[in-house]
C-alpha cells in the first residue's frame, strides 16, 4: 500500500484543499438530515437540475430522503450506476414532553438516537437543530447555539468528588444513565404575578416557555409535533500540526454524502444513468418510510423506466437491477494504535492510505452481512487503478470484537452487485470524528470514477 500523499501531484493537492474547504463549511452547517436535503436541493437547482426531470433530475421525500440522477448514454436496460449514502447521524432527540424544572433549574429531556457512548455527551457544548410543525401546518426552523452571539446548551456531569460510587465503580455503559441526559436550558425565574406576589411554582420553566413563545412562536404543546435534536455545537476543524485531518460531528456518514454529491455534480455526460441516493434512518436499522427498507427506491426506478418509455413491469425492473452496479457509500473503522487489541493489522484500514473497499460487513460469522462477489471487486480494482484512485481493501476489526451493518444488504436483495466503500474514521460515532484529508479526497475520486463509467 502507498500513502495518498506519496502519490499526489501539485495540481491534485490544490484540488484536495479546495474540496476540504467546501467540506469544512458543509460539515459545520449541516447537522440534520433535513438540513442536508435542503442544502443539496439548493445546489442542484443552481446546477440546472429540475424536480423529476428526465435528464438531470431530483426527487425528495418527507424532506429526509433525496435522489438525484443524470441520464446516461446507454439505455436504462443496461443498468444503473448507483451510490447510496445515509444522512442521519447519532444524536440526542428531545422527548415529546421535554421541558421540566427541578431545584430551580430548567432542563430538556432527551432520547438518544443511534449507537452512542452516553459519556461522550456530558459536559460539552450542544446546539439545538430541528423543526417545529404547528397545528396549522406552518413550519418553524430552529437552530440555536451555533452563533457566538447566542447562548448554547450542555448536559451536566457529576463532579469526581461525589462520583466514586455513582459512576467510577460502575461499568462504563452504566455510568451515565440515559434518563440523566437532560439538557440545561434555564435558571432565571419569571417575574411574580398577582397583588400579593405569592410564591409560584415552576417559575424557571414558565420563563423558558415565555422565551420560546416570544422569540420563536412556539408553545409547550408544539413540542408534540417537533423534531428537535441536540448536536455538538461549533464548527468542524482541521486537526494536527500539519492539518492532516478533519475533525467534526456527523462524518458517519455525511463524508460519503458530501463526496458522492460532489462527484455527481462533476460528471456531465455519464456512460450509464447515474443515480445517487441520500437516505435516512440507517443508524437505527433502516426503519421507516425514508430508509433503505422502504419501497421508495422501487417507485423511483419505475418512474425512471416510464420516462424512458419502458414497460413498468417487474420483469423489466429486475432486468435493470441485475445489471446495476452499486456502491453502499459508508465509512469504516480506521486502525487506532491506542487500541490495537481490537484490530487485525493485516486486514483493517489505515488512515491516509485511501478509500476503503469493504468486501463484507456484518458480525461474527458474517451474520447480517452483504458480501460482494470476487468478480465485482476485480471490476472496481481495475477501474480505480486506471483512474489513479488510491484504495485499500479492508475489513473492520477482529472477528469476535463486534462488527456493523450498512444498507448494502437491502440493495443486494434486488439482485444488483453492491459493495461498501468509504473512508476510514477514528472516534467513529463520537461527537468529534476524525478523517484523513487524503482519504476524503480519494473517496471523492473513487465515486467520480465509478459514476463516469
Description:
The protein is an alpha+beta fold and 453 residues long. The protein has two domains: 290 residues, Zn peptidases (Aminopeptidase); 142 residues, Aminopeptidase i, Domain 2. It has twelve helices and 23 strands. The strands form four sheets. It has a nine-stranded mixed beta sheet, sandwiched between helices. The longest helix has 20 residues. It is globular. It is an enzyme of class 3 (hydrolase). Belongs to the peptidase M18 family. Keywords: Aminopeptidase, Hydrolase, Metal-binding, Metalloprotease, Protease, Zinc. Its cofactor is Zn(2+). Pfam families: Peptidase_M18.
Estimated helix fraction? 25-40%
Q: What CATH first level of the largest domain would be assigned? A: Alpha Beta
Percent of residues in beta strands:
25-35%
Number of helices: 12
Return the CATH architecture of the largest domain. Answer: 3-Layer(aba) Sandwich
- CATH superfamily assignment of the largest domain? Zn peptidases
Question: Which residues sit in consecutive blocks of at least 5 with pLDDT less than 50?
Answer: none
The assembly state of the depicted protein chains is single chain
Basic shape: globular
CATH domain topology of the largest domain:
Aminopeptidase
The number of distinct β-strands equals 23
GO molecular function, one term: aminopeptidase activity
EC number: 3.4.11.-
Pfam family, one: Peptidase_M18
Organism: Caldimicrobium thiodismutans
